[in-house]
Each structure stands twice: as C-alpha cells, then as structure tokens.
Amino acid sequence: MNVVTRIAPSPTGDPHIGTAYIGLFNYVFAKRHGGRFILRIEDTDRSRYNALSEERILAMMDWLGLDPDESTAVGGPHSPYRQSERLDLYREHVDRLLKEDKAYRAFETAEELEEMRNEQKRKGLDPGYDGRSRCLSSQESDDRAASGEPFVVRLKTPLDGTTRVVDALRGEITFDNREVRDVVLLKSDGYPTYHLAAVVDDHLMGVTHVIRAEEWITSTPIHTLLYQAFSWETPVFVHMPLLRNPDETRTKLSKRKLDTSVDSYREQGIIPEALLNYLALMGWSMPDGREFFSLQEMIGAFSLDRISLGAPVFDPKKLRFMNAKYLRDLIPLENLTRRVKTLFESAGFAWEDDDYLLDIVDVLRPRVETLNDFVAHAGYFFEDDFSYDDQAKKKLASGQKYLEDLEREFSMLEFFDYDSVDDLVHDYVQEQGVGMGKVLQPLRAALTGRAQAPSVTDLLVILGKRKVMQRIGRALSYINAGLPDDKPQRPEKAKNATKTRHEAA
Ligand code: GLU
Predict the structure, then answer these.
(1) Would you state the pLDDT for residue 503?
(2) Ligand 1 centre and the CA of 148: distance in Å?
(3) Quick one: which of 107, 154, 247, 463 is 20 to 30 A from 223 by CA?
(4) By three-state DSSP, how is residue 310 classified?
(5) What are the structural domains, with CATH classification, of the chain?
(6) Does the Cβ of 214 fall within 6 Å of ligand 1?
(7) What is the 59 CA–ligand 1 centroid distance (Å)?
C-alpha cells in the first residue's frame, strides 16, 4: 500500500507541543513505509484564525526536521492545502449528498434551536437536534435557499442503531447513533465543519492512515458515517494517547497549566533532537528499550504495535534533562559549536579563532541543560572586566598568597600546555601542604569571577598565559583594594589599584 499520512493543524495560536507530537508520529509512520506526509491547514474556524500561526507551524516543522512532502509551502498534487481555499470542493460534495438525499438543509434560527434545547431539558429528553427539517420537501428547501434564507446542511444519520469504528490501537469501538444525530456539515457562512472538510480532504488527498490525538475519537463515528454516505473506503484510524499535564490532575496538556508552545522551548535553548526524542517516548518505545534515539533510528524501528495507550505526562523538567544529555554526550562537538556560535554572536561576544569556541563548548557542555546556558556561563571567556560573585569574593579573600605565588610561577612557565600547567599547579599545592581546593578555588574565582566553573586546568589552558596573568593581576588588585564591591564607598580606589597594577605589569 502507498502510505499517506497527514497532520491538519488549525492556525489558532502558538505552535503547540501536541502538533509536534502528532506530526512526529505521522512523519515517522509515512517514512517507515516509504510513504508521503501531508501538512494541511485547517483554517475553517474563522473566529479563531490567527494570520501568523500558519507560518509559525511551518517553521516549527522545519526546525524539527519533519518536512512535509505536500503542504501550503511546498505545494503538491492536491493543492490547495489551505481549507479556506477549498470551499468550492466542499460545496460540491455537499450538493452531491443533498441530491442523493443523504443530507438536508435545515433553516432553524439560533433562537429556535435554543427553544428546542430548553424543551428537551424540560421533558427530560436527550439533547441534540431533533431532525425537524428532515421532512421539508426538496422543493421547499430549494425555494427557501434560493430566496436567501440562511441554512446549514446536516447529514442524515441513522435514527437508531450503532456505528462501528475500528481504531488500530484499540480495536473495535461502538457508538450509539443517537449521539451523532444529524451533524452539521456546512455552516450558514458557507464554510464546512471540521467533519466534512476533514473527510473530503482525507479522501481526495489519498490519506491512508489518520493518526491523530485521542480527543478526536468521538468524531470518528461521524467520519465513518460520512465515508459511508460518499461510498468511500475509510482510512485506518490511529488515535494517539493524549499528552497530560505533570500535576496530580493529569488532565489534557493545557497552556493554562504549562508552557505548550514549541517556539518557547526553542527560545529556551531546547534542541529539536531532544524534543523529538522526548515526544517519541510519550507514545512509543524502542524494541530494545533504549531511551535515547534519533529520528532516523525511530523510523528504522517503528511499528504501531509498540505504541502504548498509557497517559503520557509531558514534563518540561524531564525534557530539559534529556536536552542536557544531548548537549553533553550525543551531539558531536563541532555540530554543537556551530549552534552555540550563533547564540554567542547574538550575545555580542567576540573572538578571533573558532578553535577557542570549540574548547569553550567542550568544557561547558557537562554543565549546561540548554543552549542558552552556554551564553549564561561563558561570559568570562569573552569579557575581562567581569564582576566577582559573592562566593568568588570569599574565595579570593582567603587566597591572596596563593595567587601571588602562582602569578610568579606562571610568568616563568614557557609552555602553557595542559601537562605543564597541570604539573605546575599540582607541584605547588604539594609544596604548600594544603588541600587542592584551598589553592584552586581562589584561582578559579580569579579567572572567572565565579566559584562554580569548569576545571581550573581547562580554564588555564583555554584562556592562555596572557589572559591568566592579566586576570590573576586583576584579582590581586581587587584583593588589595579590600574587595571593593563589598564596600561601595571605595570603588574609586579599586579602579586606581587596578590601573596601578596594570601599569606596573
Ligand atoms: N484540526 C484538527 C487539529 O487541530 C485536526 C484533527 C484531525 O487530525 O482530524 O488537531
């Protein structure tokens, strides 16, 4: 079979995590079977339409690397892919159902429908449209429509009995036909409802597998009845488990409880590989139980029978954890450095040699969770006039002697490579007969302004002799000036002291 899948997001706001999740499974299933993946824009709800949203959905898919084979952007054999541009097609199909007496026009006003509902309530009847326009003659129906009276078109659904739906993950599900009584297909504004548009498009676009979120399961009997009305073959339905909020309620993922915007995670420095991997685990597992895998690996191993119908919880903390693992171990250094470089540029950092960046990314990667953390941690590699944080000040205060000694020792060191620097520091610590930390902590504080930073030897080598000398000098001036940031009345003295030392150097 020539597999065709699709996602059909509605452009109503921020590109949603749920769209990425469903997009991933549709993409992977299509690619697994050498099929096609379509992205169609369902913009028939004009009241919720957001003009920028379509572009952002496409950008999200691009960022995730889930490229549709057919879409509003790349076109395709079933153009157009925006439902608002397919209104004639829906009307044609509705006309066909009207002609075949499988659908009918209903002319009730909003007030009449309201009254009908109130009466049903009073009489304790099931709510729902009671089919009162079914009995209009086709002559009357045509005349009233021709005279411009507003109407909707409704499907003639069976008055009793059940409709059987097959879901590939759940098997057969039976729905009472009274629950879907005479659903609206065409609204009075001439736009199709979701049900009509989805079925017509899925059929015309050759969709073989409808993989969508569980919340659409109750629409599936309507769709099944519509397929029957058109005498079309139904596609395979696969309803993915809904993503849940990570709190006790475990309700459907909602932006009121949690950040559901993919753009927002992207801006926080989550990388697409990690997000895809995390979303994959929400509904599926690798046959060998591996937690970390690439999109290609998922495609290679994918099958529907490993989709689990649990209630997957989308936990941003776990996503960050997964992201950290990607940044630390899984993304090759050069690749990671390319991504970080762009952020460093935007942060206004400047450097001469890209090898410097490779070294920085290499020592920082064990300490970050997101791409943005690189920027937050790396300032001292690019700026010489950083301030000292409180912890660092404490370390400096107790390290004056060591810094003075090391300044002297480093100045005499000819080769500033890893081994020489490491030997020097170790020998010095041994001579002093103190713990490593006593010497390394003030040195780290002097080099970075922080108490928390990568290994001192790494820092020494990456910064190089000139910067190391300059920074130790600056720290000693600072100590000599009495750690002025602690005593705001003395900033002038600090500046002068720094200058004097520099001039002396
Ligand atoms: N427009 C629906 C959505 O936003 C599509 C549902 C479907 O896939 O049939 O999810």
Answers:
(1) 37
(2) 32
(3) 107
(4) coil
(5) 1-71+241-331 (3.40.50.620), 92-186 (3.90.800.10), 390-481 (1.10.10.350)
(6) no
(7) 18
Check pocket membership of 220 for ligand 1, CB cut-off 6 A.
no
Helix (H) or strand (E) holding 249: none
Helix (H, G, I), strand (E, B) or coil at 14: coil
Spot the catalytic one: 99, 121, 255, 487: 255
Closest C-alpha to 323, from 268, 282, 361: 268
Residues 6+ apart with CB under 8 A from 197: 42, 44, 83, 86, 90
At 1 the pLDDT is 79
Is 99 assigned a catalytic role?
no
Q: Which residue has the tokens 């994959």?
A: 280
Smallest CA separation from ligand 1 atom 3, residue: 9
What is the C-alpha end-to-end distance of the chain, expressed in Å? 78
Q: pTM for the full model?
A: 0.91
What is the per-residue pLDDT for 51?
83
One-letter amino acid of 213 = A
Distance, in Å, from the CA atom of 270 to the CA atom of 239, rounded to the nearest integer, reads 27
Angle at alpha carbon of residue 485, lines to 480 and 487, rounded to 5°:
85
Closest atom of ligand 1 relative to the 219 alpha carbon: 9
Q: Which two tokens stand for residue 414?
A: 């000819």
- Euclidean distance between CA atoms 335 and 296, whole angstroms: 17
